[in-house]
Amino acid sequence: KAFLNLGLTEEQAETCAQIHCSSSADGVESHGMNRIPRFAEYVKKGWINIHGKVELVKAKGAAENYDGNLGIGVINALFCGQRAIELAKEHGIGLVALKNTTHWMRGGTYAWKIAEAGFIGISWINTESCMPMWGSDVQSVGNNPFCIAIPRDDGQIVVDMAMSQYAYGKLGVYRLAGKDLPYPGGFDKDGNVTDDPGAIEESMRIMPMGYWKGSSFAFMLDILGSLLSGGVGAVDMNAATK
Predict the structure, then answer these.
(1) Are 116 and 191 contacting, i.e. CB atoms less than 8 angstroms apart?
(2) Cα separations (Å) of 29 from 36, 159, 176?
(3) Per the residue annotation, which of 31, 51, 91, 103 is the catalytic one?
(4) Is 31 a catalytic residue?
(5) Rounded to two decimals, what is the model's pTM?
């Protein structure tokens, strides 16, 4: 009903409600139902065009480029994930890039759907500059979500993470719960390392990832290298696109 009240069609509202609610149900509260008020705010400000449609800009073999026309990020991302699957069925690999889109909420949603279709899914986006380079106090790089999903009979193997130790949404979850972070996640306005989520939100000096995220990334690269090369020892992976 919230989405319908904003002017979304029945189909759009059903899709968005399902994605937001399933994220919360899976325990990803930072990008679930709590994001609906912000979505509504952005629609009312004109930052999200609920009538925006994905348009093909360029296609060459297994690669396609699209313009999202600032449409609903969830719906745009679902479209691109499905196109990547269709291209992979035809070419063995599918590469889809999208510009002018809006927040896709939980990034793992789309890589996960690719894995459920039997393909390895790798998805990421760029964001506004909201994280300092290491050693800096100036927000100059995006806190870009990165997701890898590998299909498996006993359940997909998925890594879904922001490039910071804690995403801003996760900081908000801890702050609203009145809890400190389990590990330091950034700096306060005076440059001190802190586990206070509110202080990090205020300074916007979040730390880049490490700890469990770093080891998870290494784990997935081990699996990917072995799967794609058919080897169990050292592998060398190279890719190029233009």
Answers:
(1) no
(2) 11, 16, 12
(3) 31
(4) yes
(5) 0.90
